[in-house]
Amino acid sequence: MQDFISEEELENLRLKAKRRTYISYALSIISFPFYIYLFYISQYEKQNTFGLFIIQLIFVSFVLSLCTLGLLWYVIIKHPYNKFNESFKSKYVLQTINNIAGFENLQYNSKSGFDWDEIRNSAVIACGDKKYFESEDLLLGTYEGVNFKISDVTTKKLVYRDNKRKVEEIFEGQVLCFYKFDDTKISNGHLQIFKTEFLSNIIGWKAEHKIYTENKSFNNRFKIYSDDENNAYYILTPQLIQKIIEFSDAIGEQISLSFNDNKLFIAIKRESMFDALVDKPVYEQTKYIIQDAENIQKARDILINIRK
Question: What is the largest CA-CA distance in the chain?
Fold first, then answer.
């Protein structure tokens, strides 16, 4: 299988998947009045209450229309969409990022990601229940000489409410990890920095000591926890504090950071990376890939440089 696909080839695959998707939608909509007619002629003489009959007529026809759409998905849409989606993720994403200066040694696997234990040990977000943990779209490599890996992560937990069990989402977004980037400031234990919006069930276990810096604005925007107080103040220099604020403003999303040993984990609560969309031209989706790559650039340029 070739590793390169042109924008034109990918656009043709997208248009094919889009056409079949719209045809399936149209057929399922057309089937709705057809099912109404079938139900009407088969059940009208058996009806007792006209109002109830109308409700049953609409409900049954709607359900059958949804079933028709599901069948059409497997028969008409699934194959061309999967071909477009796999080509987009396995070929186009990687070749697009490879064209951005500074990225090297890139590997991408749409079906791989972080494992549950790694996220739990990072303490950057609440990892939830292991059986409901999901992570995909793993991209790893180096940017400007710094090793990184980034992946979509979704964590969930089982909760009990009103005597009912329900799986509740905790976090959905990206986790970015830089590793082996600075031997001069290895963190002894965890140093966790949570943007205030993260102060909910998105936070998992916290380190023992609550840390307050001399920067009141930073203390208002972020909550800091550390296993080692001296280590926290050693790493959190005034320059790094200012850079964390700068990074948070540049990303514009809820973030958290966790330093541990020679790794820096960053969680960003946002939509999934590298999703293939049939409704948008490929050239527009290229912009989204570049924006995802820019988050890696911003994190490295803002947070790592200051620590060297």
Answer: 84
Spatial contact of 64 and 35, defined as CB atoms under 8 Å apart: yes
| Residue found by looking up tokens 């990601």 in the block | 113
Q: Provide mean pLDDT across the span 248-256.
A: 88
Q: Using pLDDT thresholds of 50, 70 and 90, give the confidence band for residue 254.
A: confident
Whole-angstrom distance, CA of residue 224 vs CA of residue 138: 28
Q: The tokens of 130 are what?
A: 């292991």
Distances (CA, A) of 303 to 72, 195, 219: 49, 15, 18
pLDDT at res. 308? 46
Query: Cα angle vertex 125, ends 189, 160, to 5°?
Result: 125
The overall average pLDDT reported for the chain is: 87
Write out pLDDT tens, residues 9-31: 999 999 999 999 999 999 999 99
Q: CB burial class (10 A; 0-12, 13-18, 19+) of residue 249?
A: exposed
CA distances from 210 to 44, 181, 232, 233 (A): 70, 26, 10, 12
